[in-house]
Amino acid sequence: MPPTVQFIDLLAAAALLLWGLRLIRTGVMRAFGATLRQWISRATRNRLVAALWGMLATLGLQSSTATAVITGSFAARGIMSAPMAQAVMLGANLGTAMVAAILSVDVHWIASLCILSGVVTFSTAQATRGRGIGRALIGLGLMLLALRLMGEVTAPLQHSETLALVIAGLGEAPLVAALLAAGLAVLSASSLAVVLLVMVLAAGGLIDTVPALALVAGANVGGAVTPWLAVAVEGPAARRITLGNLVVRITGAAIVLGLTDPLALLLEDTVAGPGLRVIAAHIAFSAVLLVLFLPLVGRLCRLVERFLPDPPEGVRGAAFLDESLLETPAMALAVAARETLRVGDIVGEMLDRSRQALIANDELAALEVSRLEPDIDRLSEAIKLYITRLSRAELDEADVRRANEITSFAINLEHMGDIIEAGLADAAMKKIRKRLAFSPEGAAELADVHDRTIANLRLAQAVFLGRDADLARQLVESKIEIRRLEAVSAERHLGRLRAGRPEAMETSTIHLDLLRDLKRLNAHVTSVAHPILTEIGALRESRMRASAPRRSLREQTDPDM
Fold first, then answer.
1. DSSP secondary structure string, 99-115?
2. How many CA atoms lie within 13 A of 438 on its CB side?
3. Alpha-carbon distance 374 to 77, whole Å?
4. CA 191, CA 320: separation in Å to the nearest integer?
5. CB hemisphere CA count around 518 (13 angstroms)
6. Helical H runs in 308-439?
7. CA-CA distance, 117 to 405, in Å (whole number)?
């Protein structure tokens, strides 16, 4: 077989290995994601329990990176302390090594059985959990099949003089070998895949024990870089967890590179088979680091905190909240209101992106909504904490009223962010992935309600900032118009269903859910006008005017209308 063909086959087998790993991760998260998150969040009793849960979660996810992202997120939100999170990461490192040991078992028929049972389960299951299990089984089968293919492809390479020279060079330069493996692990986003590749090459007699040790150490370092990059937007608390894990693995790699020769002799004397030595080295690497660093997680956290300190108390990513202004309530309320308007701008951007995703089938726009939503949660929390600290000072009645208005608007914006992400963006992704299309009339109706919602948000921000009573009346009256449009669109949609329009039948649930979510968004938007109209005694009058237009049958029977 020509060398070029062999190289392509090897790359294809590696790609299949990564794809199988991705399927396992996706399947397990969809089937048991909530359960695994609960497992990790419970890891707060002591260090040993935390490490155990980290190991078990990684065995389920087949990825220490996924465990690191979840753990970092919990640390950023204060659900888990930093030392316990570091203990979880130490257990996760051992868990991914144990996954490599499980996958190294050479029972060829298991791959076929996993693929067959996975396809049957995925095809017959109706629930999300069943389909997730099927997807994970397919991924496991593909990974085992990829390892078999790697073994077959690398067998003829044992007699290659060129490869022998390259491997010999890696043996003489273990640091280069470690850097190569680290780079491969970062590029593939998986240290597990690199370790399994090294195992196959070693089992085929292509890599000696010394370069294999260096490659395993490098793969472990590269596997810690990916989660560090993945939590870059989560804040300092999350980044500290992954940075601490990276420091631990770099320390372990430095020890291995300094002792490659004696460690290689120890492995050769105690473990039979070059492939098994790679797995044993991988397990020993994580196990020794767990034993060494578990008692030191507190000191590790303090060390990392020196490099990544917390921002000044009360800011936490906010652009305008200034702690020094808390002694001046009027100025403090002004900056808090400005920060709340910034949150409103982000909500407006989410509305724009969700409209683009729904109308133009833009999947990237829907993903952008999910990226923006955590910013709203973080900023809203900072605003509420800032107002809480301000409330401890001596405030007059007007300041108390304004503080309550700011808190209320921030909470409503936070709810709007949740609705846009879980409602509008999720509906857009469902529509895109199922290749559905609204009827032209339905798309126009939804776009109209969407556009009016965006306009109402802008009006609400003006009302919030200027407290203008006329604009507040206009905002409340716009809610009536949204209700009318929602009822008309729903009735017309039902008419299209009765006419047997195929687009309406395929998108019926999505269309009605979107109308409901847009109506809920407008209810949150309108709430900013209520305190102003109540203060001048105009809210009752405004509500009476709202009942003047003739109501449809659906409005009369729906208590939420």
1. HHHHHT---HHHHHHHH
2. 23
3. 11
4. 41
5. 34
6. 329-360, 363-391, 397-419, 426-433
7. 57
In degrees and rounded to multiples of 5, residue 120 shows phi and psi of: -65, -45
**Residue 234 CA, distance from chain mean position:** 10
Task: Quote the CA–CA distance of 72 and 82 in Å, as a whole number.
Answer: 9
What the block records as the tokens of 237 is 């608390």
CB atoms closer than 10 angstroms to residue 307: 12
User: What is the distance of C-alpha 261 from the center of its chain?
Assistant: 41
Residue 176 CA to residue 217 CA, distance in Å, equals 11
Sorted by sequence, the CB contacts under 8 Å of residue 331 that are 6+ apart come out as: 325
Site of tokens 């989410």: 350
- Residues comprising the chain, all counted: 561
Strands of 319-449, DSSP E: none
Matching residue, tokens 């190294």? 104
pTM for this predicted structure: 0.51
Q: What is the DSSP string of 230-298?
A: HTTTS-HHHHHHHHHHHHHHHHHHHHHHHTHHHHHHHHHHH--SHHHHHHHHHHHHHHHHHHHHGGGHH
CB 289 within 8 A of CB 253: no
Contact status, residue 425 vs residue 510, Cβ threshold 8 Å? no
CA–CA dist 14, 199 (Å, integer): 13
One pLDDT digit (tens) per residue for the chain, 561 residues? 566 776 677 678 777 766 876 777 677 666 665 565 566 655 556 788 888 878 887 776 656 766 776 777 667 656 677 888 888 888 888 888 887 787 776 656 677 888 888 899 888 887 767 888 888 888 877 877 776 676 666 556 555 555 555 655 666 778 888 888 888 777 766 777 778 778 877 877 777 788 888 888 998 888 888 778 766 655 677 788 888 889 999 999 999 888 888 888 888 888 778 888 888 888 998 899 999 988 888 888 888 888 877 655 433 455 667 665 676 677 788 888 888 998 999 999 999 999 998 888 888 888 888 888 888 888 888 898 888 888 776 677 888 888 888 999 999 999 999 999 888 888 888 888 888 888 888 889 888 989 999 999 999 888 888 888 888 888 888 888 888 888 888 888 888 888 888 888 888 888 888 889 999 998 898 888 888 777 766 555 444 344 444 343 234 334 343
Phi-psi region of 436 (alpha: psi -120 to 50; beta: other; left: phi over 0): beta
How many CB atoms neighbour CB 31 within 10 A?
Answer: 22
Cα-only R_g, the chain: 29
CA–CA distance from 165 to each of 160, 201, 268 (Å)?
A: 9, 15, 22
Angle between helices 64-76 and 3-41 (to 10 degrees): 40
Residues with Cβ < 8 Å from 17, sequence gap 6 or more? 142, 143, 146, 147, 150, 193, 196, 197
Alpha-carbon span 282 to 262, nearest angstrom: 16
* Contact in structure between 153 and 6 (CB atoms under 8 Å): yes
Q: Taking the CA of residue 540 as centre, how many other CA atoms within 13 Å lie in the half-sphere pointing to its CB?
A: 2
